[in-house]
């Protein structure tokens, strides 16, 4: 993707499905359809308008086909790219290209998961790996624990720094009526919680919930005639690094370096221009890594950067203002929900947690075991 596509496609509608724990018999497709109906209503569009369909799921094997059947639509353009939690930022990139090429006019990105209801192991079982399985890792958490341990060893990052990420997320969640967690959380509580995979405690790990979301994109010109103010796609970057954690070239540096550089280059902006961030926080180490790799601080400084409430409400940089995967909702794959929050912030729809003068937002997705990284930058009309 290049700078010529900057701002030519906009988000017209967004919505979550119900979040939390669903009634028995609820399927991921039910949640995708529920979110779709809400997102189309948000945009002032109908199913008849949708001619592009983008779906990723760990539970629905043939996502685009099954959702198209469920919704009763026949999209001209479709994409089932599944690279984990970053799939949806990748879908934004592909939807922009499709709309610009005339392959579709209205693109729907949808996701749904019943991971809590059916159990984590049933929803997303790791692929067999003869090189790692003999060591009996608890995946994915053990993979992220390796990255956290290495970061602590190389840069002096502490468990308290990790805990600051969890506490900041909880403080934001307490301002979000839709967030799952409703009780305050202190650093000492994180540190004293049950250890899952050293150095990550249960409070360093994301929620396991049911839920989903949907996003509707169309051309900027069409979006301006619809119900809500358009939020423009300014830049998108995609990168793949490795498949398994034992093959990650460097445990403390992710390919978010490449995806971020591509997104910023397309947008013509840099980290200093960003007002709000949605960083994939399946574990507390990931926002620290991504703040570094996306250029918000130097490599190794992420722990110190998040200290003393710097990314919490009232801090110098708003991160995961919905509460993130740690305290708001993490239904197996979180990337779409991160983008929904960024769009809401730019629209000014976030109530108590609203970031003042919010014109540029960054949502960053992570897939598998730090394997895929995709970055999306969104902006208000004032950024064009």
Could you give the topology of this structure?
Blueprint: E1 9-16, H1 28-43, E2 52-55, H2 63-71, E3 77-79, H3 87-101, E4 106-113, H4 115-118, H5 120-123, H6 141-155, H7 159-173, H8 187-192, E5 195-197, E6 200-201, E7 211-219, H9 220-223, E8 231-240, H10 256-267, E9 276-279, H11 285-293, H12 302-306, H13 324-328, H14 335-347, E10 360-367, E11 372-379
Parallel strand pairs: 2-3, 2-4, 9-10
Antiparallel strand pairs: 1-7, 1-8, 4-7, 5-6, 8-11, 10-11
Content of β-strand: 15-25%
CATH architecture of the largest domain: 3-Layer(aba) Sandwich
Give the total of domains.
Answer: 2
Largest sheet: 9 strands, mixed
CATH superfamily of the largest domain: Thiolase/Chalcone synthase
* Pattern of helices and strands: EHEHEHEHHHHHEEEHEHEHHHHEE
User: How would you classify the helix and strand content by structural class?
Assistant: alpha/beta
Total count of helical runs of at least 4 residues: 14
Helix content: 25-40%
> Widest sheet: strand order?
3-2-4-7-1-8-11-10-9
Q: How many beta-strand elements?
A: 11
GO molecular function: acetyl-CoA C-acyltransferase activity
Keywords: Transferase
Protein name: Acetyl-CoA acetyltransferase
